[in-house]
Predict the structure.
Amino acid sequence: MAFIEWKEQYETGLLGYDAQHKTLVRLANRIHECLDSQAPGSDLELSSVFGAFLEMTRTHVRTEDELMAWHHHDPAFGHEEAHQNFIAGLEAISEPSVEGLSQRQRLGEILVKFKLHFETEDEQAFLSMLRHRNFPVAK
Ligand SMILES: [Fe+2]
Ligand SMILES: [Fe+2]
């Protein structure tokens, strides 16, 4: 079973935005597999998949922060701040050791944060609002 299972309810109908979420989930699942793997070469793959995850996360939070602003999503929920904290955590992975935790351990923790953030009530409520707003209207 994948670390994060993609569900139809995650789709909003905004194709570019949905594609970003799908890519992030795919990359998070691959990182999770690499972290579990002792196979030779897994460190190399981990580093390139992590690079793609970091880049896609930067792109995605810009998109989502803008979408939320356009739709007057309540900033009091702290969604934008959660994004910035998440990126700061990802960028800190390049430090060899923080508080005695290895890069792999911290990456494992950050993946759990990603999963929790994606499944939070706030993110899911926003997806649901977009899905209903973008539902094709019968003519
Ligand atoms: Fe998102
Ligand atoms: Fe988010």
